[in-house]
Structures are given as C-alpha cells and as structure tokens.
Amino acid sequence: MALKVLSALDTARTQYYHFKATIVAGMGLFSDAYSLFCIPPITNMLGRIYYPHPHHSSQHHLPTNISLAMIAASLLGAAAGQLVFGCLGDRMGRRGVYGLSLLIMVAGSLACGFSACTTRGCVLGSLAVFRFALGVGIGGDYPLSATIMSEFANRNTRGAFIAGVFSMQGFGILASSMVTVVVCKIFAVGSRAGGGLSDQHTPAGADVAWRVILMLGAVPAALTYYWRMLMPETAR
User: Fold this and answer.
1) Which segments of the chain does DSSP mark as H helices, in order?
2) Pick from 12, 80, 142, 171: most CB atoms within 10 A?
3) 28 Cβ contact partners less than 8 Å away, ≥ 6 residues apart
4) At residue 201, what are phi and psi to the nearest 5 degrees?
C-alpha cells in the first residue's frame, strides 16, 4: 500500500499544492539568508557604537576577533542545527520539527534585538549567544525545507522545485541589504564614501537601527511557521 502511495506521488501531475510547498519552503530559506547576511553591516554599526575612534569616524570598527565571532556564531549554530534537526525530522516527522526550528528562529531574531546590558562586553557577548541560538534554528530549516519540497514534488519536476526553493536565498540576501539601507536611512545612520559612518550622525540612531534590522528577521520566519502549520505532513 505504501509503495502505491509513493508511486502515485511520483507520477502525479503538477498541481497548486506543489507551488504552495515551494513558496513555503522557499520562505524558510529566505528567512535563513536574511538572518545570516544582515550581520556584516551590523558589525560596522557596532564598531561605531562600542569602539569609536576619537578623531576619525571612518576608522570605527570592531576588533577582528570580535567581528569574526559575531559572524561565526550563527554559522556554528547552523552546523549544529542541521545535525540535530535533521535527525529529529527523521524520527518525529517533518512538520512539527520544522515548526520548532522556525520558532527558534523567531525567538532568536527577537532576542538579538534585546541584547541590552550596561557594559560593552555584555552586549556583544549576549548578541553572540543569541546569534548562535538563531543559527541552530537556521540549521534546522535548511535540511527540512529541502526535504519537505522533495517529498511533495513529483519525479519529473522535483529538481526544478528544489532549485526554486534554494533560489529564495538570493532574495533573502537582497532583502537584508535593502532593509539595512532603509532602516539606516530612517534612523539617520549615514555613511561616507570611505565606508565609515559620518560625523553628523550620533551612535544613538545606529544603536536602534541594528536591533531593528535583526528583529525584522523574525517576520518572514513567523509567516513561514503559520503557513507550514496549515500544510499536512508529507506522505513519505
């Protein structure tokens, strides 16, 4: 009986639910790319706020080891998340585990914006911890998004639909850049041709801007969670 069901899925004609699954799974990877690639410009803002140069605004920057830690934290979390959630998805089912990874992404994105302490080390340290937690959710989303799409698709269009899912990463990277530009403009975070933030703007705007940029990553993840919970478990 099970083989007949799987055979029917492989030979089914392309229908609306195939495209719906592509969009839902693709939005997961969109959220992943946004959260991963919004951090490089944020490190520039953090440098202006917490490591200001007394004379030259173009030389505001985080120390190299701290900047690398900010970037690497989410990548390390993603590596761990892929292993953990990949195994859980096989044992407990795709739907519930995928929803859990998205909830971790939502919580991690919001927590990053609330990395507020009284000292510089506490702010940056808590941000690194929250970025790691966010990365765990991102890591869980990667294998599950691809697996869900492959299990919904038929034999003839499976590769095309999976490619469509992963193409959403590019849109997520583009969105992170666009959101960063818009938010910095709203909060009056200026820039010079040399790459530094201009002297006419105070760090206060930058301190709000980087938090908003990170927290906005929770929006697509929350929408993806809602849409995914409306879909059934995959037959496979």
Assistant:
1) 2-11, 16-37, 39-50, 64-92, 94-113, 120-152, 158-186, 203-215, 218-229
2) 142
3) 98, 102, 141, 144, 145, 221, 224, 228
4) -110, 140
146-161 pLDDT, tens digit each:
888 888 777 788 888 8
Per DSSP, the residues of 111-174 read HHHT---SSHHHHHHHHHHHHHHHHHHHHHHHHHHHHHHHHHS-TTTHHHHHHHHHHHHHHHHH
Q: What is the mean pLDDT of residues 194-212?
A: 67
- To 10 degrees, the CA torsion angle through 193, 209, 207, 53? -10
Exposure string of 175-213, with b = 16+ CB inside 10 Å and e = fewer, is bbeebbeebbeebebebeeeebbeeebebebbbbbbbeb
Contact 45, 206 (CB under 8 A): yes
- C-alpha to C-alpha distance for 192 and 58, rounded to whole angstroms: 8
Q: How far apart are the first and last CA of the chain?
A: 12
| Token pair of 64 as six digits | 């190299």
**Which tokens sit at 111?**
């927590």
pLDDT of residue 144: 87
Say which residue the tokens 């004609």 belong to: 13
What pLDDT, on a 0 to 100 scale, did the predictor assign at position 8? 65
Average pLDDT, the chain: 84
**pLDDT tens by residue, 221-230:** 999 899 888 8
